[in-house]
Amino acid sequence: MWTFVIKREYFLTYRDIRTYGGREDIYREARSKGIAFVRYRLEVKPRVERQNGKLKVTVKDQVLQCEVEIEADILTLASAIIPSGDNDVLSKVYKVSMNQEGFLLEAHVKLRPVDFATDGIFLAGLAHYPKPIEETIAQAQAAAARAGALLSQDSIVTEGVIAHVNEDACRGCGLCVALCPFEALEIV
Known about the structure:
Blueprint: E1 3-5, E2 11-14, H1 22-32, E3 36-39, E4 47-51, E5 54-61, E6 66-72, H2 87-93, H3 133-151, H4 175-179
Parallel strand pairs: 1-6, 2-3
Antiparallel strand pairs: 4-5, 5-6
């Protein structure tokens, strides 16, 4: 396997980059000014070592399919954004979906970007996915507008929740009566 030592001033190693809208222009400008973007896979993370008083970053480039050694004077790490550990609990309580990383999912990306599939529950910010502050603010304003539209109505018609017993599965233990949060069941 080949190893390249590249002499450039600026490198950006990344696993994922999301550039859209005006941020795509920033990405293009950075590329045009000579910043080298080196993509790596999660399974093969970059290695950092100190050699002769300098930092050496070794990363397997996904385009070149070989290791690249970068001599660095300064190494800056971006802080990671991970989903809250409580998202799985919220997902079950509010009956909302999660993606494979553990972030909460909207009802529909284009048609209902701040709504969950469960009516009356809205989504904003980093619970959704890592995003810039401007997008978080815009999403929060949209969620507040959606909630305000519901709250401004004189009345809201909802589907009724009806408790019933599956007699084929019932053993008469009474556990369902004790666990029912609506106190809708009783043993007769």
